[in-house]
Amino acid sequence: MNAIQIKKEFNAPVAQVFELMSKHATYNTAFAPLQVKRVKDSADPERPDGVGSVRRMGFGPIKPLQEQITVLEPNQRIEYKIIKNPLVKHHLGVIEFEPVAEDKTLVTYRIELQARAPFVSKLILAQLKTAIKIGLSKLAKSV
């Protein structure tokens, strides 16, 4: 299985970083010009971006990628998977939050990916790694 891992330290407490990264709309800032829109709310009215929620990603009216939140453990972990994508056999995103001090948080972002076409997984992961590094840096500056 092909995978990447990115670590980024935030100068903010875990609860603040988790709250920021558990909202789908945050990824509009992190990964601009890519646009992210929640298209299905979770069953929890307190956390519409929680478990079971679905976000679509793309540009303008074309948003072919769909991700579903599968795990949400407050201040600890978020997991999501790509759904309904004929090009991807397996995609799992895991974001973990670890306090390193009272006002510092280490975010570890991992993605496992297996595309249906051979050799494509490594290319996609290389692009994702660059985008996530930039995105996490933008978010870290925003808190």
From TrEMBL:
<dbReference type="InterPro" id="IPR019587">
    <property type="entry name" value="Polyketide_cyclase/dehydratase"/>
</dbReference>
<dbReference type="InterPro" id="IPR023393">
    <property type="entry name" value="START-like_dom_sf"/>
</dbReference>
<dbReference type="Pfam" id="PF10604">
    <property type="entry name" value="Polyketide_cyc2"/>
</dbReference>
<protein>
    <recommendedName>
        <fullName>SRPBCC family protein</fullName>
    </recommendedName>
</protein>
